[in-house]
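Reviewer comment 2.1 asked that we show a complete input and output for one of the modelled complexes. We chose the 1,3-dihydroxyacetonephosphate case, as it is the one discussed in the main text.
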Amino acid sequence: MDRIGQMQHTIERLTRPGRGILAADESYPTITKRLSDFGIESTEETRRFYRSLLATTPGIGDYVGGIIFFEETLGQRTDSGQLIPAACEAQDIVPGIKVDKGAVELAGSDGEKVTQGLDNLGDRLDGYVEQGALFTKWRNLYQITPALPSRQALEANAEVLARYAAIAQSRGMVPIVEPEVLMDGDHDLDRCAAVTEAAQASLFEALRRHRVLLEAIILKPNMVLPGKGQPRPSVETCAEATLQVLRRTVPAAVPSINFLSGGQTSEEATAHLNAINQAEGAKPWVLSFSFSRALQNPVQAAWAGVAENADAAQQAFLQRAKLNSLAREGRYSASMETDNA
Ligand code: 13P
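Response of the prediction step:
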């Protein structure tokens, strides 16, 4: 298969009906923080055990079409000795890899960030392909204040995200492009909408500049929500605001939009995804999930680092993934949280 055929095939697998993507690609500091919230120490062995538990959950391939991993995981094995990417493929789940190297201060800005990781990226991708990864992720982040993000930050971040996407596609890997507008701050819904629109508009301009094939990317945006701690409008209002921004900025050529959860509770993220899929009006893309925290919090709580809890943790994962699978089709209702518990 040629490079474009390979990417089309990967997109088809990632966007099959009822499926979303699990982000299990936390860097060392982030996974350490997530696990410690549940009293679990982050070691090479606990990370291996935990991430293979996710990949080998029986039946999870019905709801999860792809899993994004961190570099370390691609070389780790399940308890039965199978490499974790191969264990994913055995469940028809596409293995992916986070390739950015995190955010650093954007020199010359007022404390804003830019994501790094372009140096030697092509060579690194060649290695990940050998390890079985078929798609990639890169995350930018944008902080909202009354004055920010600046044009400098919008343009610098769009440029690196587009360059990353072009390099990934040159290797036949599908790039997930993630321009995350953070929920921190006390801004309202309209301000989040305006910033999200600006971030995505500059991103799509840069993708065009770098001749990225839009049919072979996945967009991973934030949902449009007010700042953390601010009063929340109804899920329907947030869904409408999110769709309005997407319609204004994302060409219909893009096959799939897979949202991040961004610090919402599991239930909130599922309810918002459901409302987005239930809303009226033009929606020319698949609208699904690529959650990390909203999928994994219940799993980590059930596991708590105790090997005997592994089955319960897998059940929690299956249940949460199933509810999000329903939400991705607009068929979820809040009563299912207790019905199926
Ligand atoms: P959250 O769903 O926890 O926001 O994480 C998504 C992600 O992968 C961030 O890069």
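The two ends are 44 Å apart (CA to CA). We note this here for comparison with the apo prediction described in Section 3.2.
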